[in-house]
Specification:
This protein is an alpha/beta fold and about 375 residues long. It has helices at about 15-25, 30-45, 55-65, 85-90, 115, 135-145, 200-205, 215, 235-245, 250-265, 270-275, 300-310, 330-335, 340-350, 360-375; strands spanning about 50-55, 75-80, 95-100, 120-125, 150-155, 160, 165, 175, 190-195, 285, 295, 335, 350-355. The strands form 3 sheets. Strands 1-9-8-5-4-2-3-12 form an 8-stranded mixed beta sheet, with helices on both faces. Strands 7-6-10 form a 3-stranded antiparallel beta sheet, with no helix packed on it. A two-stranded antiparallel sheet has the order 11-13.
């Protein structure tokens, strides 16, 4: 039997909540389920404000608008990330500045950060890879020293923490993903987290297509009109209803993913000890969420053999990002600061294994046996 890389999980309450949304007569967004999800996000992350969006990409684009990045500005970020991290700022005319990642967590190397800062730097955008937090204390210190905003691209970090603090709720702004490949899903979907109160009111305006509709609904202004830049960032109420079924079971979903992650991790300890593969590294100050499980082969040839063995076994395993700095658009719109040695090395050697709710113990054991045999 084929084992897919991902299979979206439904709690069983999604259809009931969607029906409630339909019966409410408000399908276009910003209704009961939208507010319920946003209140949950505020409680869970400690953010001052949470706004549901139709994707994490949209939330990142809102970050770029809020920070008013534009031509001549630079935003520091890792190259080992999805294109949306860079696109959000490049769309406003800013230059993504790519910095290498740490060899242990595959996150932005905070030790290289300060030397990448220039008078044109407007913000730092961190990516919590695999739901393992970046070194936020060091990153925030550099940002404070130079007067920079910190955006958390927390697409993979729902329910994860750094020194006890929820990811997404630590920087100036945060962006979350609820894409079907993430832990908590709504098909497509995301959220903007506003942690700096200076941006709260304008975030609401941008979210409402650049209008003061929210203020008008609260009776704070007399007229509903266009007052700022914005776009159609809201998801539908049916999307929010689906998401609420997931958020309501978030702890249970996270616990089950961690069971699978830990099963893999224990099983590959001996292969790592022999130097045949390297397992993920989670620093003690980080509490991860079991978002994905990856292995690093010693060489690109070893990665190729491992992927081929898994394919023969009927297992869909994948590598991950082509580094943005080496892509055609990355070379056109961004620039590199320093060496990309670690980024280029890990991108050639990384293999992601299936992690999804419903993945049975027998299937996990088959994956483990295939990996162990292929790496002997």
């Amino acid at each position: 039997m084929r084992v897919p890389f991902n299979r979206p999980f439904a709690t069983g309450d999604e259809f009931r909540y969607i029906q409630e949304a339909i019966e409410s007569g408000n399908l276009s967004g910003d209704g009961t389920f939208t507010r319920r999800c946003q209140e949950w996000l505020v409680r869970e992350t400690g953010a001052g404000k949470a706004l549901l969006t139709h994707s994490c990409t949209a939330a990142l684009e809102m970050c770029a608008l809020l920070l008013e990045v534009g031509p001549g500005d630079e935003v520091i970020m890792p190259s080992f990330t999805f294109v949306s991290t860079a696109n959000a700022f490049a769309l406003r005319g800013a230059t993504p500045v790519f910095v290498d990642v740490r060899p242990d967590t595959l996150n932005l190397d905070e030790g290289l950060l300060e030397e990448a800062v220039t008078p044109r730097t407007k913000a730092i955008c961190v990516v919590h890879y695999a739901g393992v937090a970046c070194a936020m204390d060091e990153i925030l210190a550099v940002a404070a020293k130079h007067g920079l905003a910190v955006v958390e691209d927390d697409a993979q970090g729902s329910m994860a923490r750094y020194r006890g603090r929820p990811l997404g709720g630590i920087g100036t702004l945060g962006a979350i993903s609820f894409h079907e490949t993430k832990n908590l899903i709504s098909g497509e979907g995301g959220a903007l987290l506003v942690n700096d109160p200076r941006y709260a009111l304008r975030a609401e305006t941008i979210w409402q297509k650049g209008t003061n509709r929210s203020q008008f609904a609260r009776g704070e202004v007399e007229k509903y009109s266009w007052v700022d830049l914005g776009s159609s960032f809201l998801p539908s109420e049916m999307t929010a209803a689906f998401l609420w079924a997931q958020l309501d079971r978030a702890a249970e979903i996270t616990a089950r993913r961690l069971e699978i992650w830990n099963h893999y991790h224990r099983a590959f300890a001996e292969a790592e000890r022999r130097g045949q593969i390297r397992r993920p590294i989670v620093p003690p100050e980080c509490t991860h969420n079991g978002h994905l499980y990856y292995l690093l082969a010693p060489t690109i040839e070893g990665r190729t053999r491992l992927l081929a063995a898994l394919k023969r076994s009927g297992v869909d395993a994948l590598f991950h990002y082509v580094p943005l700095h080496s892509s055609p658009a990355g070379r056109r719109y961004g620039r590199v600061h320093g060496s990309m040695r670690v980024t280029e090395s890990i991108s050639e050697r990384l293999v992601r294994l299936p992690v999804w709710l419903g993945l049975g113990e027998a299937e996990v054991d088959r994956i483990i046996e295939t990996v162990v045999e292929a790496t002997r």
